[in-house]
Amino acid sequence: MGKITLPRSGLYSLVAAAYRREPKRWGPMLTGAVILCLLLFIYWAGRNFNPYQVRILNLIGINIGLGLSLNLINGFTGQFSLGHAGFMAVGAYTTTLLMMPPAVKQMNFFMVPLISPLDEIQLPFIVALLLGGLVSALMGFFIGAPVLRLRGDYLAIATLGFSEIIRIVITNIRSVTNGALGLKAIPAYTNLWWSWGFALLTIFVITRLIHSSYGRAFKAIREDEIAAEAMGIGLFRHKMLAFTLGAFLAGIGGGFQASLLTTIDPNMFRFILTFEILLIVVLGGMGSITGTVIAATIVTILKEVLRGVEAPMNLGFISLPGIPGMRMVIFSLLLILVVLFYREGIMGQRELSWEGLFGPRNGRPERGVEA
Amino acid sequence: MILLQMEGVGKNFGGLTALADFNLSLAPGELVGLIGPNGAGKTTVFNLITGVYRPSEGRIVFDGRDITGLRPDLITRCGIARTFQNIRLFGNLTVLENVLVANHLRLRSNPLEAVIRWGRYQAEEREMVAYSRALLEAVGLDHLAEEEASSLPYGQQRRLEIVRALATKPKVLLLDEPAAGMNPAEAEELMDFIRQIRKDFNLTILLIEHHMRVVMGICERILVLDHGLTIAEGSPAEIQKDQKVITAYLGVETGA
Hints:
heterodimer, A: about 375 residues, mainly alpha, two-stranded antiparallel sheet, B: about 260 residues
């Protein structure tokens, strides 16, 4: 691993000195400062960014939340699940159906009418979101109960299967979901405050949980199930806890995405969607919260930047027609390369922390700071 | 009084009998050794007691309660802890975290309390950390508390595994080859360590070991297994003279 060379003077040494004197006091203050800066940036971005840039920023926030929810299951608890798209679909559809005005519902369901009482219900966005999360969590609970008895590849395949089942069911219960036609003109409530509020809240919950006794139990299960069980940890209960909470957050993320894109259809929730979230988790590092945050930002931006490769290209001697989906080829290659040569991802299981940035590195000689 | 009793316990894997008609009774405070050649069924006994395997026949009673076929985590909650033949530490966690994990079974706060950190969770966490640190200090591992468990030298990993088992506050401790791979000096140190924790924690210990010096040195009673059958039981001196045991270990002299 390459060492990070830190700046040697000015603000850095000032903050580092203060932090080292009273880490208990300066740690939370620095965190507060970062959050404040982020909120100011969001405020500023909301006023100065163009709609396209705002949308990317929204997607980053939502992807952070989604990435963390998958990392909780795959990275921290070690249960390799590929069912996230299914939970997002459940959340997206539930949220949408609960908050869409009846008039818009009537417009959407012109083939098969929406069943009562869904056709008359209209709930506030936040309530619809939470219910979307809860329905998704319930789904996670019922899928997890049989599936979490499996391990490794078998678990991955079973969750993938259930995710597809959810999608097929959604395609076919037309009187509830409007089938393959999807839902259009979804009220666009998602804004930067919502999406980044979701991101911050998810970071908060996952961080606290991971650094609690429950988090240690999750990690123990990841490290060695037999030993964890021999230490009195109920495997099933803890796996279910991680899986259900992951599904809950995925459902809420799905709800936000529906309200951001304003249109959903079953084909959005194919395996490729799970893959995109998985890419964030693996690239950032399985079992690293800061890694997921960084990777979610990078992947979301990269996805936009790489739109160029899908456009028709004229290389002078040959002109290529645009190939939709080329971006995903690049992402797939990226994932293969990461898994082959750089398994740890960006952060591995480490975290960026104030202690790591400013603190005296325990036992090891200090780098650059005192010099 | 009997703390742990196994009555006619057997285990078959398909047609293979790993253990047959096994009887064991441990009185509180005893230190009993379980020996036998490779594949004799010693670890199977441990796996049956701790619920990793469900017995094909017979029953296991601990502290007056039938624990036959109970889930491993529930058996640990009853007060039986174990170590593993091939060390099974949580390698990526720190030494302290490894011990803390074994405190989790006593946690009463729910996940929500753990996230919000209100009410009793904070107090419980402080208590867990204090107890774990005290344990580590008692066995001289406290200076390594923040190290990754996998980075510890072999002997200390063995020791940490025992400490981790102790953190579940067991009445019975099952040690699976604690001296494996140790040189005589380390084995000697381990014997002192086992004697010490037995006294300090009021433990009843069942021990699997190939290291004869350790077995003969600390065990009060020894059971010998061979091919799933109990071939001898008695004091170390009796076992050393037992013809069946000698045959099991060394084979029969055929006299050419």
